[in-house]
């Protein structure tokens, strides 16, 4: 298993980042919140989880170890694969997930694309005793103020499968929440909540 990848960021796309490690470009599938913290040409270290399938080896990259452990844990629930697990972390922080599962909050879990009422109830039932309590206050991932948050949130939504027109409406809906220093990850989660209500 590959525990983490450390190298220069060669490329950042809508759903992945390529890190150059010893002359080899490794593609890591990441949430929009994690991608927003990466800049092409800069060094980065991302904890990773490898998903092995019959026809593919996929590396998922995370902002921190807590995100990685949560990603791996939620996949132990039946019906939750790596894509749904990644969507969960795109919409909710690990602590938000813990709160939702511990508090039987089906409504919060169904905000995640791909999780319906029954799926949310199953996840709560299977993970409630294993997910743990929310950790202490976590600081949001830092995002440079110069980054055009609107584009990042829009690209993140499109990367998660939402139509560009719907993504644009969601970006407009969360614009008042941006403030002086926009938190792209929080704005993306807010935009996803807006889309799930529509």
UniProtKB/TrEMBL annotation:
Protein localization: Cytoplasm
UniProt keyword terms in alphabetical order: Cytoplasm, DNA damage, DNA recombination, DNA repair, DNA-binding, Hydrolase
Region (Domain III): 143-198
GO molecular function: DNA helicase activity; hydrolase activity
Listed CDD domains: UBA_RuvA_C
Domain Helix-hairpin-helix DNA-binding motif class: 72-91, 107-126
Keyword match Calcium: no
Presence of the UniProt keyword Iron-sulfur in the record: no
InterPro entries, alphabetized: DNA_helicase_Holl-junc_RuvA_I (IPR013849), Hlx-hairpin-Hlx_DNA-bd_motif (IPR003583), NA-bd_OB-fold (IPR012340), RuvA (IPR000085), RuvA_2-like (IPR010994), RuvA_C (IPR011114), RuvA_C_sf (IPR036267)
Highest taxon above the source species: Bacteria
The record's note on its domains: Has three domains with a flexible linker between the domains II and III and assumes an 'L' shape. Domain III is highly mobile and contacts RuvB.
Family named by the database record: Belongs to the RuvA family.
Record's subunit section: Homotetramer. Forms an RuvA(8)-RuvB(12)-Holliday junction (HJ) complex. HJ DNA is sandwiched between 2 RuvA tetramers; dsDNA enters through RuvA and exits via RuvB. An RuvB hexamer assembles on each DNA strand where it exits the tetramer. Each RuvB hexamer is contacted by two RuvA subunits (via domain III) on 2 adjacent RuvB subunits; this complex drives branch migration. In the full resolvosome a probable DNA-RuvA(4)-RuvB(12)-RuvC(2) complex forms which resolves the HJ.
Primary role: The RuvA-RuvB-RuvC complex processes Holliday junction (HJ) DNA during genetic recombination and DNA repair, while the RuvA-RuvB complex plays an important role in the rescue of blocked DNA replication forks via replication fork reversal (RFR). RuvA specifically binds to HJ cruciform DNA, conferring on it an open structure. The RuvB hexamer acts as an ATP-dependent pump, pulling dsDNA into and through the RuvAB complex. HJ branch migration allows RuvC to scan DNA until it finds its consensus sequence, where it cleaves and resolves the cruciform DNA.
Protein name, entry field: Holliday junction branch migration complex subunit RuvA
Natural source organism: Nocardioides caricicola
Taxonomic placement: Bacteria, Bacillati, Actinomycetota, Actinomycetes, Propionibacteriales
Gene this protein is translated from: ruvA
